[in-house]
Amino acid sequence: MRWLIADLAALVLPVAVVVAVRAAVSLAAQPVIDVTIKDHRFTPSEIHVKAGQPVELNIKNEDPLAEEFDLTALKIEKVIGGGQQGTVHIRPPDAGRYPFMGEYHPDTAKGVVIAQ
Predict the structure, then answer these.
(1) How would you classify residue 58: left for phi > 0, otherwise alpha for psi between -120 and 50, otherwise beta?
(2) Superfamily classification of domain 31-115
(3) Is pLDDT at 93 greater than 60 in this prediction?
(4) DSSP 73
(5) Is 32 helix (H, G, I), strand (E, B) or coil?
(6) Which is the most buried residue in 2, 8, 34, 37, by most CB within 10 A?
């Protein structure tokens, strides 16, 4: 019985190490894109990402009023106070166009994430 447990551990441990290393590399390789909110507009308003790869958005709100980053298609909402910064993590998207907006100023705060 001890040999069976040792054999299983010898098989499982390397797989667990490979999975952990891949996860760490994936997080380290995750691109970071800076986005600014100013005058109730997102800059850049068109964000290009690689399909199937996670991405992090660092959003800086230079307006005095709060704004909510709303990317409904990917189920992401984040309120960023006036003069504050926030981070949004986008899980690996499929190829496509994903519109986002500022919930508090939807007429001017608009943009799109394009995954290719």
Answers:
(1) beta
(2) Cupredoxins -  blue copper proteins (2.60.40.420)
(3) yes
(4) G
(5) strand
(6) 37
